[in-house]
Amino acid sequence: MKKLSIKSSSHSYPVYIGENIRFNLSNLVRKSYSSFLIITDENVGGLYLDDVKQSIGISDNIHHVVIPAGEQSKNIQSFYALHTKAMEYGLDRNSLIIALGGGVIGDLAGFVAATFMRGIDYIQVPTTILAHDSSVGGKVAINHELGKNLIGNFYSPRSVIYDVTTLHTLPLKEIRSGYAELIKEALLADQELFQDILQTNLDSLSNSKLIEHLKKGIHIKAKIVEQDERETGSRKYLNLGHTLGHGLEAELGYGAITHGEAVAIGLLFALYVSEKEFSNNLAFENVFHWFHRNQYPLHIQNMDVNALLDRMRLDKKTLMQRIQMILLKKISEPQIMEFDNYKLEQYITGFISYLNDRMTS
Amino acid sequence: MKKLSIKSSSHSYPVYIGENIRFNLSNLVRKSYSSFLIITDENVGGLYLDDVKQSIGISDNIHHVVIPAGEQSKNIQSFYALHTKAMEYGLDRNSLIIALGGGVIGDLAGFVAATFMRGIDYIQVPTTILAHDSSVGGKVAINHELGKNLIGNFYSPRSVIYDVTTLHTLPLKEIRSGYAELIKEALLADQELFQDILQTNLDSLSNSKLIEHLKKGIHIKAKIVEQDERETGSRKYLNLGHTLGHGLEAELGYGAITHGEAVAIGLLFALYVSEKEFSNNLAFENVFHWFHRNQYPLHIQNMDVNALLDRMRLDKKTLMQRIQMILLKKISEPQIMEFDNYKLEQYITGFISYLNDRMTS
């Protein structure tokens, strides 16, 4: 088992990464709690809920709620219903919420913990590769119908317990989704990791390689959020690929493509714009080939570019109605840049037609 | 104009108290913001919205939302609708929310600010006496149908701008409501203020006397929240009178009596139980007489005591299903005490019948 430590403004917390550590929760959760509420989804619950319950102990005070899987659950209705459950189960300020699942569960259960009686403890037990990113750094949120993650808090977990054995059951689509965030982190800060991922074939990913990549990705993420927890500066760089990515997710309808698949297209767009703006040669071709070889969906059909721009304008980086994008001057050298509507529209139109040409040629 | 300064864990903020200072907002709000959203209710909006808008300046970026007055607005639907408005008006992370109104507006608008894009700045512009309490200390929340203030955050404002001139338009019912919290603060920490309030007739309250009481009340509140912002210890004392008070409000239906009127009954109950538990002679009689003389509603009719206990158990101080009450060993010496159901039921039944006897005798 590996252990990283993350500093937040309110407290430090450990990230444990290891095999089968879901069976060891009661030792990893040091504090004693009056009761527990495990929040999970239908997919993950069927696989790991019993393990986690038994791992905490035998008690009347261990409750659970299973919600439908998918981004659609990250809404205000689920949020309120989870509060109702927490009250009905008699949770109090000394209770612990356990987020067992992917990013949707982590964001939603974390936001419930952040707001239940003005904040109680929670831990993240991520079960996807994608959630290596969202489980660290304390960003919790639900979606608004107008945009993703627009209602939320900065609220750090008490620990992150990452049992990589649970990743074995992931479908390839979810592995792809997670690796988009890993590539993003590599592009921001680690040329070596970037090259190593480009050498990796997701079809035949080994467990040791996955753990190595996850550990490096979490390390990059941790360094950035420690410097700028509340995203007033450098944490914005973690939005590389997300300005278009979030817009695509909202415009296509949550769940139509995975978050990571949307981020993959967003990363290509960021590289495309970076190469035009800075006349550099980043790695668009290499990344495009790697995404293509690993079967990321890269076609964008029948897109209303103006509607997409409206979605992008609701991005949390937007200031005075002007969209901000993270670009790369070179690998490990991100930069934020502001665009007016016209220029961004030109870039998006050009990018979509370039992408579609490449995919059909 | 008087100025107090409050330290919170994230920043310090000023509380300005003075006459007609609502006309001076642009000078008191130091930072420059990309846009403004004033949240107010129908009553206050009709009186002061124009003053506040003009005081900020002439700009396309000053928006407002007027919601129905009353505790019923402090719910999840209003919360979501305000987020929608904030997005439609194009608010960004450099925008400011202005809570113009009483405690309901302050709590609701503050919670919207705390969660909009994971937190933007807000200021409190309280227009009731009661809100001298809620506007200081950073507690923001909405109600859940099962209990009051159960969904919220600790999130401090950037400043509190308290124009006491706006208090002139308050009906007597609202003055009563505010003075219940002032008496509570006096009981917790200031024997002299307590005696002075008991000498005050609310019918003929002078402006100078009111300012003096508000300043002292805010000072007491500020000292307590600075010591224990997140209510792990001494801040709980500010709940004096609220365990029963919140229960009554929920059980009678929000809006049936004002918050302060419910707290007044709760304070009498806390004094009643304190005198029995500690065999002391606090001031039950004096406080009862003062409430009675100032026409606080002290009758409790047809109350289902078990339903009331269920409501009280949802109090945020409850631990392991056991209700915690704040009692007074003597004035300025609060103490937290845990009760089992049976004992509390006896006390409540005894108290209600005692109160009703006194009121009909």
TrEMBL record, chains A, B:
- Record keywords: Amino-acid biosynthesis, Aromatic amino acid biosynthesis, Cobalt, Cytoplasm, Lyase, Membrane, Metal-binding, NAD, Nucleotide-binding, Transmembrane, Transmembrane helix, Zinc
* Gene Ontology MF annotations: 3-dehydroquinate synthase activity; metal ion binding; nucleotide binding
Location, primary (coarse class): cytoplasm
Single GO biological process annotation from the record: chorismate biosynthetic process
Q: Which residues form the 3-dehydroquinate synthase C-terminal domain?
A: 178-318
PANTHER family hit by this protein: 3-DEHYDROQUINATE SYNTHASE, 3-DEHYDROQUINATE SYNTHASE, CHLOROPLASTIC
The record's comment on protein family reads: Belongs to the sugar phosphate cyclases superfamily. Dehydroquinate synthase family.
Known role: Catalyzes the conversion of 3-deoxy-D-arabino-heptulosonate 7-phosphate (DAHP) to dehydroquinate (DHQ).
Please state what the protein is called.
Answer: 3-dehydroquinate synthase
**Gene name, please?**
aroB
